[in-house]
């Protein structure tokens, strides 16, 4: 059962109760690892474990408990028993709600770090009190946290689905096709273009499936299904190592169950 997260901008007036701290050195999260489970600090402040952040951001509350993100100095000395890990490494070891908040946190930390000054006139930016945005007090430029929308699509042919291996994938793992939306494109146009560019086939019957925040580094992954309409698989070698049709009862190593890619694949196996 998912816990209830309520986004917020303004921290509690009395900062005296324990909070979840999503503390980052660069793009690595501070965690305590116990066998196959990872935990983030649950403290009144990071000073309790000897850490002084460069800056912090209030995220909101998780089941009424405050949540903060924090940027730590690059030369941070880690507390005993704690380590730094990238979010991809923690995908299967963090609680689902904590992982999703970790993705939110790293994007806000990075946005705050890279928007200290106005990109138009170089004046120090001011955090607005009523929304997650910064305004330049000199020229009025307003900046919001950036999102880069991307599509991900399961292409099917009868009881087969199209799977591919990208260069960055772990050994032997296959997944469905994905790509970023370009300026001026609709989501459906992106689906058609990405499939054509990466594997050279035509598709039809494009349908929306669902979406998932994807903090690698700041994407919103928008899922679709589509049906094969023609053509022979011809991979784009700069994007893919391999691609092919796989029967639903004979699948290779797949992405983790919590990913939208796996949710699409599991849905296909269950319904076709």
Automatic annotation (TrEMBL):
This is NAD-capped RNA hydrolase NudC. Homodimer. A motif (Nudix box) lies at residues 179-200. Keywords: Hydrolase, Magnesium, Manganese, Metal-binding, NAD, Zinc. The keyword Transferase does not apply. It is an enzyme of class 3 (hydrolase). A divalent metal cation 2 binds at residue 194. Gene3D superfamilies: 3.90.79.20, Nucleoside Triphosphate Pyrophosphohydrolase (3.90.79.10). Its cofactor is Zn(2+); Mg(2+); Mn(2+). The keyword Manganese applies. Residues 144-269 form the Nudix hydrolase domain. HAMAP family: Nudix_NudC (MF_00297). Belongs to the Nudix hydrolase family. NudC subfamily. Substrate binds at residues 88, 131, 144, 212-219, 261. Pfam families: NUDIX, NUDIX-like, Zn_ribbon_NUD.
């Amino acid at each position: 059962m998912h816990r209830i997260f309520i986004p917020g901008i303004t921290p509690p007036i009395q900062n005296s109760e324990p909070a979840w701290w999503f503390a980052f050195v660069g793009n690595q999260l501070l965690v305590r690892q116990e066998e196959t489970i990872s935990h983030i600090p649950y403290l009144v402040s990071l000073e309790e474990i000897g850490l002084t952040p460069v800056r912090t951001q209030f995220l909101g509350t998780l089941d009424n408990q405050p949540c903060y993100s924090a940027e730590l100095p690059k030369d941070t000395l880690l507390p005993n028993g704690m380590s730094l890990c990238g979010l991809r490494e923690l995908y299967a070891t963090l609680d689902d709600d904590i992982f999703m908040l970790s993705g939110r946190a790293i994007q806000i930390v990075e946005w705050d770090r890279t928007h200290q000054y106005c990109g138009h006139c170089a004046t120090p930016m001011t955090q607005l009190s009523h929304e997650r945005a910064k305004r330049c007090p000199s020229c009025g430029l307003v900046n919001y946290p950036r999102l880069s929308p991307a599509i991900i699509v399961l292409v099917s042919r009868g009881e087969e689905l199209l799977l591919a291996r990208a260069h960055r994938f772990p050994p032997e793992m296959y997944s469905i096709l994905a790509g970023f939306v370009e300026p001026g494109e609709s989501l459906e146009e992106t689906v058609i273009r990405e499939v054509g560019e990466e594997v050279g086939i035509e598709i039809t019957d494009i349908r929306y499936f669902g979406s998932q925040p994807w903090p690698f580094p700041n994407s919103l992954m928008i899922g679709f299904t589509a049906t094969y309409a023609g053509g022979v698989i011809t991979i784009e070698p700069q994007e893919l190592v391999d691609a092919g049709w796989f029967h639903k009862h004979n699948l290779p190593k797949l992405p983790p169950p919590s990913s939208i890619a796996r949710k699409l694949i599991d849905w296909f196996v269950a319904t076709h």
